[in-house]
Every structure is written in C-alpha cells, then in structure tokens.
Design the sequence.
C-alpha cells in the first residue's frame, strides 16, 4: 500500500514540482492551492502525509495545521516555508508539525527524510495495531 | 586703548598726544583726513578717534561719514573737535555719525572725562559684539546639528525601506528558486534512467545521429550541475537578504564577548587550521557583559573571521597568517578588535566595504552581504563597527558595544515579551 501525499502550496509550479518528484518515488500525490482546498480533500479522502506552505491566501498553513490537529490528529504535517518568524515556528511545533523546511529546498533529501520518518511512524503503528488484534481473544 | 588723533595743527596734535599718553592710552597721530582714513581702515583695533573738523583734503565730518558707511565690525567712538560752537554745527556733526562733540579750546579735564565715557561705551559695544558672534556661532552649530540629524533620519528611513524591499525581494525570488531547484534535483535523479535508455538506443542508431546523442549524454549532466550551482548561489543571497531585513531585538540579554570569540573560533576552526594560522587571544578576563544577542554577535565574528581567512590566504607562503582578537572596556562600552595580517583593503575602497553586494572576492565566492549584515547587527545593538588598515599591513575591525547595565529593566521587559 503506497502512502498518499497531499501537497498544499499556492504556487502551481511548486505543486507540480513536488508532485512530480514524489510520484517518481512511487507515492500517490494530491495537490491543493490553499488551506480551504486542502480541507475539502481531507474531508473526503484518506491522506497520510501533508506537505504545506505557510503563506497562502484563503486559509494559510498555520490555520490548516489547526484544522488538522482538531480533525485529523494522527497526521504530522510537514511545513515548507520561505520565511519563518519565531512565532510561526513555535505555532508549527505546538500544532503538531513534524518539522519545517526552508524554501528554496536546496536539498530535497531533507523533505524525503521527513516523509520517510512519517512513513516509518505509520508503519510502526500499523504493526502495533495488528499485534493488538492478534492479542484479542 | 588705541586712539586716533587727527589734527592739522601740529601743536594741538602734540598736546593731545601727550595727554593721551599720560592717561595710559596709545595715540596714533596724523595731520590730515586722508591719512586718518587709511589708518582707520588698516587697523581695526583702533577704538576711538579725536577728530578735528577742519582739515585739508578730507575734513573731519567727511572722515566720520566714510567710517560710518564702511563695513567696520569693531566699535569706533568718534569725538569731533572743532572751533564751531553753533547748535546747528553740533547737530550736523551728530548727523554725520560723530558720537561726541568738543569745542576748542579743549579743556583736558573735560576731554579725559569724555574719553572715559567713550571707553565705557566702546567696552559695552565690544561685549555686545562678542555675544553676537557667539550667538551666531551657536545658531550655525544648531543648524548644522539639525541638518546632520535630518540626514541621519533620511538614511535610517532609506535603510528601513531597503529592509522592507529586500524582505519582499527575498520572498519573491524564493518561490521560483524552489521549483528550479526541486525540478533540477528530480531531473538529476531521473538522469541515470534516461542515460541508460539513450545509450542502448544509441547503439542501434546510424553514425550521423549518434554524435548528437553522445553530445546530449555528455552535456546534460553538466547542464544539471550548472543549474544546481546557480541555485546554490541564489539561495546564499536570499539567506543573506533574509538576515539583512530581520530585527531580533527581543532576544537581547547580557552577553560575554569573550565567549562569543571562543564559539565563533570553534565554528571557523577548520578554516583557520587549514591555513595554519596563528590565533592570538588577548581577551580581558575582567570584561563586563555587553547587551545583545549572542548568536547574532557570533555571526558577525564568523563573517570577520571568514573575511580575514580569505585575505590571509592570498598571502599564503609569504607570511604566516596571524589573527589577533583583543577585548577591552571603558566605563560605558566594551570593545573588540580583530586584526589580520592579510592583503588589507585599498584605502579608497574602505568606505564601500559596508555597501550591500560589495565584494572583493571572486564571482560566486562571496555574496557581498557579510559586512553589510554585520553592520546592521551591530547597529541594532546600538554599537559601532569600523575598519582600518593595520600599521603592519592587514585589516583591523573594531566593534564597540554598550556595556550591559546590571538588572536593566529593559532586559527583563525584552526577555518577557
């Protein structure tokens, strides 16, 4: 079962670039141009990893994180941003972000590693849940 | 007091001269109006004149008129002496600009008294004049100060708009750079697959077209690394600009400059070891804390060390690189100097080194933002940073920062926010 990524960025070229990259790495990728679109997808569809920009019109990244923390608390979103203030960074931490990565993403490996960590975490939980089912009488 | 005596009658002249000397004055005599005029024009410190009305050439009345219409800035008290005793003559004399009027024959006692009155007037005029000069000077100084202040404000305003502008530019350039960078990286990952496919296709291709495929096979990796290189440089500039426009005043706290030096040296240790540089620490162990942000100050030091290393590297083999750190303090400030023995900065370039994008390094090696950012950081700390060429060659940077005030409320407020 391959992971489903949701990429949220108001810049189309960045969405395209990231979805191309992760598709080539065999992930299923969906995209949204702002927080609002992302929420619509999250409401209707299983998503394993969210990669989101911060500054976006119509529901920004921090607001999206807040929504996710409330409605999809198992998700650990990855924040990519060009400019981060201390306040923003602390909000990301409090709202359960996995990490934040600075644009211009000079090394995509950092982003891939973050996705891998989330993947490992999910697999670990799946294992645990299977074990739990096995233990049931 | 220097007193001019203009009198065409030699006997009277002599008499007046004697009396003046007796009363402690310094008489300057002449026998006609024209000589008197020349004397007064030349010597601005003649403060009083005893002038006979009737003289050949230029008469006393005309002399007084000339003196009054000249632009003499020092006081000059004129007593007109004459045989004319009519009231209208007196009025004519005062009208012409005489200060006093004596009728011949002159009574020495009266003359002495009148000279004393004149002296008092001259003295008070002189005081007034000096006060006026001082006042004019003060006004000029105030105007200069106001002008300087206006210039500084304008400069600060320009810097502020520059900060806003650079933050905007950095942000706008960031996004396109992200997708250039990302696409190039994805392309690099895909390249082995494309390369394999192309190579196997080339084998079954006629010689003529094969050359083109071979060219693509050798050139595309170079093109990719060219893109990568460009992105790296743009990223470095963007990062510089971001620091440039950020103000982190809220993290000010007492900082030990000596510690900053040690930590910056740890960060740059490799570079200096590689140069086999001698690092001399003349750090004052009693140095009081300064107020600021330790990381920012370390960033400034790292900038200075990297620049020094570059400057010293250019002299490799000729002189052993030597980098001296010295800290000291006075009642209000702490001071840190960093002196290298590298190539130095040409004197005519010294004022330019603080400009953003000024660099003496090879294209692509430096962004030209290091010193500009450093200056911004030090100014945020209400300090100064200056550069000069050291006496024995090389460059010396001096950073002066305000001393931390113990228990400063400012610190606590800043820390709490």
Sequence:
């Amino acid at each position: 079962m391959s992971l489903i990524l949701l990429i949220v960025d108001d810049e189309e070229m960045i969405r395209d670039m990231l979805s191309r990259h992760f598709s080539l790495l065999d992930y299923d990728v969906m995209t949204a141009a702002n927080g609002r679109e992302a929420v619509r997808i999250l409401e209707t569809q299983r998503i394993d990893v969210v990669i989101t920009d911060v500054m976006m019109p119509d529901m920004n990244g921090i607001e999206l994180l807040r929504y996710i923390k409330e409605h999809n608390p198992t998700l650990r979103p990855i924040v990519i941003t060009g400019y981060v203030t201390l306040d923003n960074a602390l909000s990301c931490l409090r709202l359960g972000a996995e990490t934040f990565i600075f644009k211009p993403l000079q090394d995509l490996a950092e982003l891939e590693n973050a996705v891998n960590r989330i993947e490992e975490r999910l697999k670990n939980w799946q294992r645990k849940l299977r074990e739990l089912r096995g233990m049931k009488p | 007091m220097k007193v001019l005596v203009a009198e065409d009658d030699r006997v009277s002249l002599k008499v007046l001269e004697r009396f003046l000397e007796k009363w402690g004055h310094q008489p300057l005599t002449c026998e006609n109006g024209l000589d008197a005029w020349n004397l007064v024009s030349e010597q601005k410190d003649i403060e009083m004149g005893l002038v006979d009305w009737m003289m050949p050439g230029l008469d006393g009345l005309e002399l007084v008129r000339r003196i009054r219409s000249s632009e003499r800035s020092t006081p000059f008290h004129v007593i007109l002496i004459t045989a004319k005793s009519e009231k209208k003559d007196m009025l004519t004399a005062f009208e012409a600009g005489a200060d006093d009027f004596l009728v011949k024959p002159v009574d020495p006692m009266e003359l002495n008294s009148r000279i004393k009155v004149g002296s008092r007037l001259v003295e008070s005029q002189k005081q007034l004049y000096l006060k006026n000069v001082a006042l004019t000077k003060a006004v000029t100084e105030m105007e200069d100060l106001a002008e300087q202040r206006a210039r500084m404000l304008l400069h600060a305003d320009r810097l502020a708009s520059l900060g806003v502008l650079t933050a905007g530019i950095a942000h706008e350039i960031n996004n396109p750079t992200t997708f250039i960078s990302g696409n190039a990286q994805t392309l690099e990952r895909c390249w082995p697959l494309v390369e394999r496919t192309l190579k196997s296709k080339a084998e079954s291709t006629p010689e003529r077209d094969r050359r083109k495929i071979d060219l693509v096979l050798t050139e595309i990796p170079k093109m990719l690394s060219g893109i990568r290189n460009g992105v790296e440089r743009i990223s470095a500039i963007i990062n510089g600009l971001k620091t440039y426009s950020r103000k982190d005043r809220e993290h000010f706290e007492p900082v030990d400059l000596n510690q900053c030096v040690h930590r910056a040296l740890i960060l740059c240790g490799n570079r200096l070891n590689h140069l086999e540089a001698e690092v001399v620490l003349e750090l004052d162990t009693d140095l009081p804390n300064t107020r600021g942000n330790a990381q920012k100050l370390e960033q400034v030091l790292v900038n200075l060390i990297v620049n020094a290393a570059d400057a010293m590297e250019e002299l490799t083999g000729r002189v052993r690189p030597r980098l001296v750190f010295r800290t000291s303090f006075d009642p209000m400030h702490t001071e840190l100097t960093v002196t290298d023995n590298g190539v130095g900065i040409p004197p005519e370039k010294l004022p330019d080194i603080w400009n953003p994008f000024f660099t003496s390094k090879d294209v692509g090696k430096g962004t030209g933002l290091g010193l500009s950012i450093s200056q911004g950081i030090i100014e945020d700390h209400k300090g100064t940073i200056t550069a000069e060429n050291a006496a024995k060659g090389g460059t010396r940077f001096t950073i002066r920062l305000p001393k931390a005030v113990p228990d400063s409320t400012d610190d606590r407020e800043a820390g709490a926010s």
User: Anything to note?
Assistant: Chain A has one domain: 4-134. The domain at 4-134 of chain A is CATH 3.40.50.2300 (Rossmann fold). Residues 53 and 105 of chain A are 12 Å apart (CA to CA). Chain A has a mean pLDDT of 91.
